[in-house]
Amino acid sequence: RGGKRRQREELYQLSKASRLCVPAMNVNDSVTKQKFDNLYCCKESILDGLKRTTDVMFGGKQVVVCGYGEVGKGCCAALKALGAVVYVTEVDPICALQACMDGFRVTKLSETIRHIDMVVTCTGNKNVVGREHLDKMKNGCIVCNMGHSNTEIDLASLRTTELKWEHVRPQVDHIIWPDGKRIVLLAEGRLLNLSCSTVPSFVLSITATTQALALIELFNAPEGRYKQDVYLLPKKMDEYVASLHLATFDAHLTELTDDQAKYLGISKHGPFKPNYYRCRQTSPHTQNAHKHTDVSNRKYFF
Ligand SMILES: NC(=O)c1ccc[n+]([C@@H]2O[C@H](COP(=O)([O-])OP(=O)(O)OC[C@H]3O[C@@H](n4cnc5c(N)ncnc54)[C@H](O)[C@@H]3O)[C@@H](O)[C@H]2O)c1
C-alpha cells in the first residue's frame, strides 16, 4: 500500500536510520524504468484505457493533465497527437516551463475546470482533484487517474448521500449530482491503464530486465562493493538494458573513435554520461550522485 514513491521513501528512511539489513537497488529511479515505463508506456496506454472504457473521440476535446512529469509528458503528447486541446497543471516551475515550451497551456485546475471534457491526474500526489473541482465540472466530464494508486482524486468526498453512484459498465461509474449532472469516473480513481487496458510487453521487458540485472549485480558483487545502503543502478547497467532492446529496431549504434573518447574523457564502451547527467528525479535522495556506484573502472558481468 502507498505505491512505489512511498516504498522508495521508506527504503531511504530505513537506510538513514541504519536499519537496512542488506544493500538495496532503487530500480524505480533508473533511467530505463523512468523513461520507458513512465513515459512511453503511459503515452500509449492512456488512449487505450480511455477508448476501452468510454469510446470517447479525442479530436477537439479539452483535457487537463495534472502533473507534467514523465507520466504527464507521455499522456499530454498522446492526447495532443489525437487533436485534443491539452492544458497542464503543475507545481514545479521547471516542469511548468517544459509544458509551455511543448505548446501546452499551464493553468490552475480551478481556472479551466468548468469547460473541461476530461481530467487526467499524473502527479503521484493526493487529492489533486477535490470536491470543489468535481462540483464545477460540466455534465459528462471524464475523470481518471494515471498517477499514484487511488489517492489523486478525492473519492471520499463523492461518497455522500446527495450524490448517486451508477455502475454503467466494468470500470465506469457515473456520479450523479442532484441537478442531474453526471461525472464519468473511471476505475474508481485507480490507475486507468493498469485497470482498463494492457501494458505493452516491450516496456515490461525493459523494466523486468532492469530488475533482474540489479539482482544479479547485487548477488555477484564482491564483498564490500555495496554496503547496507540504497543505490541507484550503475549508469552502465542502464545503458546495457537499453542496448539489449535496440536489436528489436535493428538500430545500429555509432562507436566512438579513440580520439573522440579521449576528447570527451569517457571510455569507448561507456558509461556515456556522468551520473549527474540531467538528474531526472525531484526526490532529494535520487539527486545524490554519490549514491551511484562509481563504475568508471569496474568490470561487470556483462
Ligand atoms: N500509470 C502507470 O502505468 C504509471 C507508470 C509509472 C509511474 N506511475 C505513477 O505516476 C505518478 C507520476 O510519475 P512520474 O514519473 O510522472 O513522476 P514525476 O515526479 O516525474 O511527475 C509528477 C509531477 O507532478 C507534479 N505535481 C505534484 N503535485 C502536484 C499538484 N498538486 N498539482 C499539479 N502537479 C503536481 C510534480 O511537480 C511533478 O512534476 C507516480 O505516482 C508514479 O508511481 C504510473
UniProtKB/TrEMBL annotation:
Domain named S-adenosyl-L-homocysteine hydrolase NAD binding: residues: 38-199
Names of required cofactors: NAD(+)
PROSITE patterns reported in the protein's UniProt record: ADOHCYASE_2
Pfam families: AdoHcyase, AdoHcyase_NAD
Transmembrane segments: none
InterPro entries: Adenosylhomocyst_ase-like_sf, Adenosylhomocysteinase-like, Ado_hCys_hydrolase_NAD-bd, NAD(P)-bd_dom_sf, S-Ado-L-homoCys_hydrolase_CS
Signal sequence region: none
GO cellular component: cytosol
Keywords: NAD, One-carbon metabolism
Family: Belongs to the adenosylhomocysteinase family.
Protein name in the entry: S-adenosyl-L-homocysteine hydrolase NAD binding domain-containing protein
Native source species: Amphiprion ocellaris (Clown anemonefish)
Gene: AHCYL2
